[in-house]
Amino acid sequence: MSTKTPTTTATADRPGLRDFYEDPAVPVASGGPRSLRQARMLAEALGPAAHGARTILDIGCGDGTAAATAAPLLPGHRLVGVDWSQDALRRARTRLPHTVRGELTDGGLPFRTESADAVLFSEVIEHLVDPDAALDEIRRVLRPGGHLMLSTPNLAAWYNRALLLAGVQPVFSEVSLRGIHGRPGTEVVGHLRLYTARALREFVAASGFEIVRLRGAPFHGVPRPARPLDRLVCAAPSAASILLLHARRPPAQGA
């Protein structure tokens, strides 16, 4: 399940969601295996800082776990945590040297157009009321050729396929902010949207990005006996627990 907080003010228009995401009991930490795989993808895309220091925005940084995991693999680059939740930012400041409060809509992020080289967008999109506006804003702040590293739970994860066949609500999906109903698990994290691999590729491409690659990652909430299988299935991203998408803003023509 995602553990990120949303950065869109579409949630702020609904007091129930605002209160939900400012509740300190709502988890804001990122899963370790997913964060590490995503960090490796980003380090490979950016290269060493000897070729020029880059600015990386972790949008929806939560408690800063994803950026802190990436930092050792990105020495010399500048990591900035961005979140809408004040509570999440308080926790992120214990891990990150740079944090900024920002929203993806209603005035946009507090960054200049084409000012970032990369964006980490880790398990945020499934929380958003308006993901279209969010990707428009991310595209704005990215330089031409800039990288988007997006992760989100997979609606078509291998166990969800079996659960649906049995008439059980899929893992990661939620029908209430007050409790879990009709599916395994006990923790409510506020998922509003879910994607399959195909849907995610098509959505991000329609938002003006070039798809570079899609990889899978395991989910820390899988029961221990099934974890070896969950890691094995990552080789087939369309059935993996977590989708890791690397996209980029198209380079300027002639570049």
Automatic annotation (TrEMBL):
Entry-linked Gene3D superfamilies: Vaccinia Virus protein VP39
Residues of the Methyltransferase type domain: 57-149
CDD domains, alphabetized: AdoMet_MTases
Gene Ontology BP terms: methylation
Keywords from the UniProt entry: Methyltransferase, Transferase
GO molecular function: 2-polyprenyl-6-hydroxyphenol methylase activity; 3-demethylubiquinol 3-O-methyltransferase activity
UniProt cross-references to InterPro entries, sorted A to Z: Methyltransf_11, SAM-dependent_MTases_sf
UniProt EC number: 2.1.1.222, 2.1.1.64
Protein name: Class I SAM-dependent methyltransferase
Native species: Streptomyces heilongjiangensis
